[in-house]
Amino acid sequence: MSKRFPLTAEQIALSEERKAKKQKLQAQAQASAPSPNNAEERILNRPWIDLHAAHGDEIRVKLFTWNLLAQCLGANYSRQAEMSSKEPQRQPMLHAEILAQDADIMCLQEVDSLDKLLPALEAAEYNHHYVSGPGKKHGCLVAFKKTYEKLEERVIHYDEQHVRSEGEETTRRGSSFRTKNIGSLVALKSLTKEGEGVVIGTTHLFWHPKYTYERTRQAGILIREIAKFRSDLQLPNWPCMIAGDFNFAPDDPGHVSIDPTVPPTVKSAPAEDEAGAVDPDRVITNARRAVPEDGLLSDSELASLFSVANVVRSAYDEGLRQHKQTSSTGFQTFGDRMSLPRTKKGFHEPEYTSYTHYWKTVLDYIFILTDRPVAVGGLLSLPLVKDLIPGLPQKGFCGSDHISLCAEMILSHKSGTIENAER
Questions:
Q1: Counting beta carbons within 10 angstroms of the beta carbon of residue 294, is it exposed (0 to 12), middle (13 to 18) or buried (19 or more)?
Q2: Architecture of the domain made up of 50-277+309-411
Q3: Peptide bond into 280 cis (omega under 30)
């Protein structure tokens, strides 16, 4: 039997320190983890929509996205909903909804209060990656189950990105306004499927309704950069999935431009029902009209930003279209509400993903970029409009002013096929 030497005082102290740290983390996790019997954590029950039967040889990835309404912003919404500024009421509901779908990967925007959120994620066996724009008090977080490992990461600072290779610095950027918005890219390697993984992008694009050009520029840069990120890592078979708050509706030039087969168009000012009144608590400072020296992109130059990727698909547009064909229960989509042609891309996006006093529209999406066959295996259903009145957030219903989205994507193996899958 080997002789065990006594621990030194330094080793004992280090062991005690590690033990105390572990106990503190466990206590924080228990305090933050949602309990199904706690009335404060009650949220709307939203049924899951199954669209594709499971097969053993397929790879399934469940992706959740949600704008949490940062507490540092929620305090400004007191005229909209009293509970927006009450963190003790919102936090249990937020944590309950984040964990309810047991997603493999989560993309969260307007994330603050990390001291409360991270213990809840850790208790649920998630790792995370968090970034924020310069000087911002909230940011974007990608959480992923421990069946994945972070391979690489990259931050996109939209204000600093070039959209031209020639000219002065301002012309090369082609930006209409400095927004401090960012995109976050993470390559996640599967620890259960050899050689498999997924490239995740999440973002929160600039919010103001009048800045359509800047949002379209940012969306184009995001598409370009996630394709470049995957190429730089030499992972052509890994699908790219982008989820977040894009702050544009399906009939907006930013959304239309995501499909490079559709030329961008100029959209008139949004209708009152779609945009609502501009929130007086959210004011732009240091704004000015664009001048020729800013080098803003033409329509064709904007379109070229998106052309680096094949057609970008929307999980909800495809999934709700399929569900509408087979469902006996009627439900409204964005296209129904706006009387769009049924063949138009974006028709089957949710009727609303944000419903407040100041705006009622669709802002959030889950997009897929891949050459591999992919089917949408299931979706989280949407609440009825009658339940959204008078607006979000609502106690016992939803802790944010946005509606969470969740979709399960089914990927073939690199050489396989999936019935009813699209490319």
A1: middle
A2: 4-Layer Sandwich (3.60)
A3: no
375: Cα within 13 Å, side-chain hemisphere: 22
28: which 2 tokens?
């924080």
Cα 195 to the chain's mean position, in Å? 25
Chain position carrying tokens 């740290």: 21
Cis peptide leading into residue 393 (ω within 30°): yes
Domain boundaries, the chain: 50-277+309-411
Q: Could you read off the pLDDT of 300-355 as tens digits, one per residue?
A: 888 888 877 667 999 999 999 999 998 877 789 999 999 999 999 999 999 999 99
CA distance 177 to 210: 11
Looking at the DSSP bridge assignments, the partners of residue 240 are 199, 369
Q: Report the alpha-carbon distance of residue 46 to residue 348 in Å, rounded.
A: 18
Q: Which residues make Cβ contacts (< 8 Å) with residue 64, sequence separation at least 6? A: 98, 101, 103, 105, 106, 107, 243, 380, 404, 405, 406
From CA 244, how far away is CA 183, in angstroms rounded?
10
pLDDT at 72: 86
- The token pair at 222 is 């995001």
Task: Compute and round to an integer the Cα radius of gyration of the chain.
Answer: 22
Which pTM value belongs to this model? 0.84
